[in-house]
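pipeline: protein-struct stage 2 | run 1193 | Flagellar protein FliT
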Amino acid sequence: MAMRSVQRALTTALQHEDWERIRHLDRVCVLLIDRVIAANRDDKSTLVRALSELKGVYAGLIAQCQQEVTLLHAT
């Protein structure tokens, strides 16, 4: 599934703090979310599962950004 590939790529980019890659993948993700929603209009459980997994990736991204901001303010 393309969404899982993007999720893995986002996680890897986050681990490497590759913000340009994250920005690109975020744009790709928007397009994929639209496709996932359209393809699963009748299968709500699959839709919820896919979006929940993605939510976890973005929660990690937000936490990492918050850490970066905290470090910047500490210096």
